[in-house]
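Protein modeling request. Please complete all fields; requests missing the sequence field cannot be processed.
Requester role: graduate student
Desired output: 3D structure, token encoding
Chains: 1
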Amino acid sequence: MAEAHQAVGFRPSTTSDGAEVELSAPVLQEIYLSGLRSWKRHLSRFWNDFLTGVFPASPLSWLFLFSAIQLAWFLQLDPSLGLMEKIKELLPDWGGQHHRLRGVLAAALFASCLWGTLIFTLHVALRLLLSYHGWLLEPHGAMSSPTKTWLALVRIFSGRKTMLFSYQRSLPRQPVPSVQDTVRKYLESVRPILSDEDFDWTSVLAQEFLRLQASLLQWYLQLKSWWASNYVSDWWEEFVYLRSRHSLMVNSNYYMMDFLYVTPTPVQAARAGNAVHALLLYRHRLNRQEILPTLLMGMRPLCSAQYEKIFNTTRIPGIPKDHIRHLRDSRHVAVFHRGRFFRVGTYSQSGLLSPRALEQQFQRILDDPSPACPQEEHLAALTAAPRDVWAQVRSSLKIQAKDALEAVEGAAFFVSLDSEPAGLTREDPAASLDAYARALLAGRGHDRWFDKSFTLIVFSNGKLGLSVEHSWADCPISGHMWEFTLATECFQLGYSADGHCKGHPEPSLPQPQRLHWDLPEKIRLSISLALRGAKTLSGNIDCHVFPFSHFGKSFIKRCHLSSDSFIQVALQLAHFRDRGEFCLTYESTMTRLFLEGRTETVRSCTREACNFVRAMEDKEKTEPQRRALFRLAVEKHQALLKAAMSGQGVDRHLFALYIVSEFLHLRSPFLDQVHSEQWPLATSQIPVQQIHLFDVHNYPDYVSSGGGFGPADDHGYGVSYIFMGDDTITFHISSKKSSTKTDSHRLGQHIEDALLDVASLFQDGQRPKPRCRGLQEEHTGHRGGSLPCHRTGSRAPTKSTNF
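Delivered output (803 residues):
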């Protein structure tokens, strides 16, 4: 037995990836070094947590305060007004020779109490300052005197050396809006899509709700807002995500794409090695809180709480709800290739494995000829099954294959080495992009571990992608990580001339550990049923991705309009032309101005937007009239967006009221109607948050192309978009093939036409012409395909000057 051999000889030992190797140093020395690394990690976290807790003050400020008190005491001054003498009386009497020591201890205790009081005062002052949202409601480009004063005060009360979680103690709590205002805004939002009769009936239900139940439900929400960090976010996570019994695939997860026009290397193992190394570098910076908090206007911080669960996180299925399992650390990744699972250690005795060493490990997996065991190939389809089914099967799997299951669920993240190529191709650009999106969103139904916080997908031609589980955080968090990953692996780490990772292999590394699953017959039957359901769901999704290159953010700015509002109003025009009617439209925006804030809904189908759409379809209307109506629609959308960001939205408040009514068994027909609403058009913008990582002017092809998600309704669309540089907007559209009402390609054409028609209003009726993209192969970047046009002079640098 291996255990007995270890006990006797102390020669074979276990490395961080679980494989047996010969150690050149004694086992006791390795135990010592392992403990030392662990203690260093714990001390580093403790110190970072301490610095975060005392922010915006610093430890040096305590030393300065203590020194000042000692100096005053030496000058026979008592800044404590007698308090230090009382503290001395409470200290033990150690004799006359220790009288001076008692004085120093009393001064230290008084300085600590005074320091703590000052820190608390700074926290309160900063929280009060950050509760001001007047700046958000001001016109674009204008800044009032109160806002200028507010900015100056925030700058004064904010520390200089900020860390990721520095502002968490100072962020205000999300306010509970007035229930009367929420109901009024709700009725205003549904007026454009309801008939007069239906709207009158909804108004009656709303008035009945305000009269009978609203005050009681609102009181409970106010109570929760005083007690909890956020009055809605924990319920949102539990009831919208963790209590959902549907499959995660398509219904909950979303995807992020690689560069659209360029692939840095066609070597699959090399791309995986650099990407995994970059992700682990991001985790290292995250653990040390070296990632700067996101600041609006360069001063207003956003909540960073969601960053905590990016890595080492798994959604565990359960009945009646799932739960999120997060580990403090994990020193391996789980890898899937051709139906087999592997555990790959990411650290050696000298620290994090180099990109070249990781490439070597992934290449070993790719070269491994061993076949998958029966049903092992399709095992991951269980994570795409309904959650109750997966929860029941997992309880058996945990007994039969505990070690293998723990290796996957305890990994830093999941890596899927896909056997097929993906990405843009020269032969059929449109179809190849659509297939790329579908592969990222659903794959083959059995090659992603959908429970993991995210799965890194590396295709056989070197193309990358990300499939993200949604419950633990929202898209801007994973998007921030993905931007860092793409920029780091391409610009900072780079590749050699032959496409491999830089550096040298490490032949002494142990082989990746193959995971073995003991699957009883009843689990095999469940796998077959789960695979059938996953393939059905995957085959039903209709994805369409297209880059719109006629104009982009720069043109919209020249029109003095909000870029997001511009797109949202154009989407209303496109959807109306597609379906011939208006519908409830869901646009996600963030509420991270508040502690533990997540998202809010902007109801983009407004009366002003509908008036503009009707004017565009009315041949009697002139272009100045249409342009004026468009500006009104954009201004209305901007007002709704700012209200939602400042905690004055509609949907999260109504959601929380509904949850309270369920707890109290207090039925409200109005809340039931709100809760049963469908969203035929769900939209989201994917922001580029770290522009400094990419040189979009000199290397325009090296920009993330965003990502997408499944439709929220069986007969609806999911639309996301990202501004790639200044002159391109990439759209990701999804719908279900089973619906006779939707067609992703048809909507895509309507979106393009709508954007061009709107742009012509600001160019004297002239439609903008498409810009060209570059496609030539270069030694620093292997082009994976093209669109019909060509842009020259775009080549990736061997190293970035932006880091």
